[in-house]
Amino acid sequence: DWAEHYKRVIAFGSESYAHGWGRTPGFEPSLAGLLDICLSLLLCLELFLEIAPLLCLPLDPPLVIDGLLSPGPFPLSPALVEVVGGAHGPRGDLERDADCRPGDYRREQRKCQHRVSALPALLACGPPALRTRPIRQVTTFRPTTMRSLLRHRAIARASRPLVRCYATAVPPSPNDAFATSTNAYYVEEMYKHWKRDPSSVHASWQAYFSGLDKGLSSPNAFQPPPDYVGVPMAADGAPTLNVGSGALTDHLKVQLLVRAYQVRGHHVADLDPLGVLDADLHNIVPAELELSHYGWTERDLDKKFKLGPGILPHYAIDGVREMSLREIIRTCEKIYCSSIGFQYIHIPDKDQCDWIRERVEIPKPYNYNTDEKRMILDRLMWSEMFEKFIASKFPSEKRFGLEGCESLIPGMKALIDRSVDHGVKSIVMGMPHRGRLNVLANVVRKPIEAILNEFIGTDDANDLASGDVKYHLGANYVRPTPSGKRVSLSLVANPSHLEAEDPVVLGKTRALQHFENDEQAHITAMGVLLHGDAAFAGQGVVYETMGMAGLPSYGTGGTVHLIVNNQIGFTTDPRFSRSTPYCSDIAKAIDAPIFHVNGDDAEAVTFVCQLAADWRAKYKKDVVVDIVCYRRYGHNETDQPAFTQPKMYKAIEKQPTPLTQYTQALIKEGTFTEQDIEEHRKWVWGMLEKAAAASKEYKPSQKEWLSSSWDGFPSPKELAEQNLPHRPTGVDEQVHKTIGQTISNVPKGFTPHRNLARILSARGKSVEQGTGIDWATAEALAFGSLVLEKYHVRVSGQDVERGTFSQRHAVIHDQETEAQYVPLNALGHDQAAFTVCNSSLSEFGTLGFELGYSLVSPRNLTMWEAQFGDFANNAQCIIDQFIAAGERKWIQRSGLVMSMPHGYDGQGPEHSSGRIERFLQLVDDHPDVFPPPEKMERVHQDCNMQIVYPTTPANYFHVLRRQVHRDFRKPLIVFFSKSLLRHPLVKSDLSEMTDETHFQRYLPEPHPEDVLVAPDQIRRHIICSGQVYYTLLKAREDRGVKDVAISRLEQLSPFPYDLLTPHLDKYPNAELMYCQEEPLNCGAWTYVAPRIRTASNETEHHKGTYPKYAGRDPTSSVATGSKLKHKRETEQFIEAAFA
To answer: Keywords in UniProt for this one (predicted)?
Structure first.
């Protein structure tokens, strides 16, 4: 009775789930779910036969495998999930969740054509046969599918005839096992092994391939092995296989054991130097690594097994062809359970998994000679001595030392050296405060006297900046490597906001690759990111940054992540700071290999860093090195960590340093004597003393601070002393027309959307005629003219290729072939590149990336556009810490443009405001000080950023070009109105963008005589910004008002005192008012009002005048979502403006 069985399944599943079946510590969640919901439900053979169709497992005839589905030698073995289910592709991924969805049942059912009766023969030949892609089509042991089917009884009933049909089938010939086409992948692999060495495969394979070579057909070529020929039959005619007996069965179990070490070995690796916590937060050995799991006892340890596929094949050298079970276990423990834990089986690419296996499953993965050990020792000694020296000289200073993870320094240097050997010329690094001074001194090679000078606190060359604490500063140096090559090392400056620098590093790396014409190969530049364990697991920007790894316009060819895993976050235990076994588990989302390593083993750390460099060079993918270590002192050197971690810090007090342990090992093995090591220690300390003496007279240069050095560009010091010229930004008319013709046409045979074809034609016509140029056309003219002048242009953000408001259409799609065409890249063979790229749905990560991109060269225009201005606050950290304050803190120069949609159109609180007020609050000019003439000339050089809200296409054109047509760089925030993109009045003539024209910071009332009264009769002078100007203009016309002048502030910051002040006196009797569509506590009002008063104090007729306000009332929600209320509010402030 199916209903009765159904009840038993549910009851048994619930009970097993409640008791935590499959939740043995060390199991990955996906495996636990699979075991819980699938295998644990198979209460008995009868139940299995009933539920088989649910699992999409057609039985021909129903198969009974004694010992697999009942308690015995393999109770719920995850390796046997692979054997029975085999649903994870060529590498048998036990850790990766399935992609099967509940609705996929019937599709999967149609795909299940393989006859499971072939399974016994495959079992006899070892588990790799069940890890092939074809076997993935056999069954679908998928948690999501199973849950879905158990909720839908109708599907289960409908599938029962399938069982009856297959149950009555004639038992197949055992020879079919090799003839089945779905096994082609595995057979091919075995054939390759056989061709290389016939003895490397089982005797049955030897007979099979030998028969094929002699011309036999596939079924006749197979000779069943002895264990399979006499398979007994169950009462119902089903063949059974006694897995618990026979040499072939033992061979299979050894393969499963080796596989278990590959999958689970890292869970029991010797990773924690203190022995307080396991790195994966568990202290239970996975059952698959126990002898009893396979029905073995101590008596079986001396059994011999042949090495080959699945059983340590790379140990079959120098005449060694077999090992005892004891030796196999000891070897697997040495490889996977010593100082390094390799976690890589989650990677879906078999070749990549094999590459790692080939590097680590060898007798000596690393065997450093005397010179190499001397180098590791020297680097480790500098690392430890540097920290001790600083502590002795400045005992009360915070330095966030590296004590407890000193092996990071030899590891990083080995990573850099190996990467340079692979062709890397530039390495961009980002890291938090922990160990930063040590990295600056010993990796980047910033002069130690310069670092000590910062401790002393002299202030000389850095008086142009407010500065930052020494453990936040960036640096840019070129240093040699042991191979004789040179490498440029750049450590980006960062705030205390952990991981905020991650996307900045990637953006800078990508820009370096662009200017080296290396965006495809990704060889010349590489990003290296250092993380803390708590931050890597906890900060969302880590995933936002990793999510860019495979995106065509954001990838950098792999980032190397080094986690300084000191097993604590300030005072928080890792058990309370992450929900995953490892802090590095997020990296599995992008299929990055993870190398866990004991931080006290300097040679192991060096090896995995070299391995990471090799991985990145070969596969151009991210890789993670998780250095499990400790923090010898508190969060900073004045903190008392024993308040919250007493047990850990008792262990730390007794723990010898990595240098002590390494020197003892070198002395013991006879590589160096104690005297050799002591002499070198004294020499290092003496060098540090010399640096301390020199630090008192050291004169720092600003170039040391710069995270990007712009050769040939004025230095910050030069910019502070010079008044740089203002240049016109107009373009020759013929250049405009050339661009206009290119952007309005497509290649022959290309089929654009018919509506878009009309839009493009209209753009070309407006440029040709020189009138009616709209916003998007003006933007295209600006971008096109810049790339023709050899300025690289990059536009990035969500949906920027088309434009959120369907305004840009920078990428045209063929309606027949979906081919893409970018007109601005077809202007000429010698133009610079125009890059426009849709980003991931990320503001923090993408804005940080583009900021980093803008740091590399002054000869690029980098623009990030928000989908809606409201969403930019997701990137507030980048705005506050890098864009607004980066230059002041770190002398970090950037010409980044932020393009921000803004405007009140009744679209609600999340689609109206770009938060102008927040950006203006970050501006650093004084509202009550009128700049003297010498300062007025250089306000743009001295400001921290520029904020504009242009109202004409021509002004937008000029402000974009102005960004690069000057000898300095400042961030630019451009607000643009959605409603003005197609407004009939918002058009410009080509003459406004040619010859000597430039950006108009202030657009005064044009004062047509037929519209307004004489200037001295104007009763009110309204000043405004943005789209509200056109609302006011229409209201003035509709009302017939002739005594109100309306002027526009196109640039809000730096405030255009020099233009506004003289114009105010044009209307001597006018009342001053500032009008905005935003609420009182939003918009530009609080910034503009005091500055209008400051300007009016310099006039003849308006001294001491504070402008009146017209706008919406203050509100906590920036805009209403009601069209009616929006209209009513607009009418109210318009009424106030003209009252």
So the answer is: Magnesium, Metal-binding, Mitochondrion, Oxidoreductase, Thiamine pyrophosphate, Transit peptide, Tricarboxylic acid cycle
